[in-house]
Specification:
four-stranded mixed sheet; four-stranded antiparallel sheet; alpha+beta; 2 helices; 8 strands; Immunoglobulin-like; 41% strand
C-alpha cells in the first residue's frame, strides 16, 4: 500500500514539474486586463534569413525589440511554431526606451533539406492583442552536400 501511495505521489509530482505550459508572472495577467498599462513596441527586424546551413547544424537567431512607450513592456507567451525551434526571451519588464531580446535555436536535424520558413509568436502588453509573428527563413543543405554552407 505504501508503494502504491508513493508511486502515485511521485507520478503527480513528475507530471506537474514537466508541464510545458508557460507560467506568466501574476502581474502580467493583471496588466493584460488593464489597457492603461499598455505600451508600444518596435522590432528591429521581424524577418531574418539565416542563409544556407548543412543538415545537423544548430542555427541561432536573435530578434531585438524596443519599448517605445511610456510603460514597462512585458514579453510573454513566446512560442515557436514547431518543435525544431526553442526560444528564450527577456522575462523582466523592459523599461521605456530599453531593449529586449528573443533568442531562438533552430535544430536543422529536426527539419528537412530545402527551404524552411519558421515562425515565433510573441505576446506583449501592447494595444494590438494579436501575437507578433517573427519569421526566419533559410536553406538546409543535405549533410552530404558538396555545396558549402554560409556560416
Amino acid at each position: 500500500m505504501k508503494r502504491i501511495f508513493f508511486f502515485i505521489l511521485a507520478s503527480a509530482f513528475i507530471a506537474s514539474s514537466c508541464s510545458n505550459e508557460e507560467k506568466k508572472p501574476a502581474d502580467v495577467s493583471s496588466i493584460m486586463q488593464d489597457s492603461s498599462k499598455f505600451t508600444t513596441i518596435q522590432w528591429r527586424d521581424t524577418a531574418v534569413d539565416f542563409g544556407s546551413k548543412k543538415m545537423g547544424d544548430l542555427v541561432s537567431i536573435s530578434f531585438i525589440c524596443k519599448n517605445t512607450g511610456d510603460k514597462p513592456l512585458y514579453l510573454y507567451n513566446v512560442r515557436p511554431s514547431c518543435g525544431c525551434t526553442v526560444a528564450d526571451y527577456t522575462k523582466e519588464p523592459i523599461a521605456p526606451g530599453q531593449e529586449g531580446k528573443i533568442n531562438a535555436q533552430f535544430d536543422t536535424k529536426k527539419s528537412h533539406p530545402g527551404e524552411v520558413h519558421k515562425l515565433i509568436y510573441v505576446n506583449a502588453n501592447n494595444s494590438n492583442k494579436a501575437p507578433t509573428s517573427l519569421k526566419f527563413t533559410g536553406i538546409i543543405l543535405p549533410s552530404d552536400s558538396s555545396k558549402t554552407a554560409n556560416k
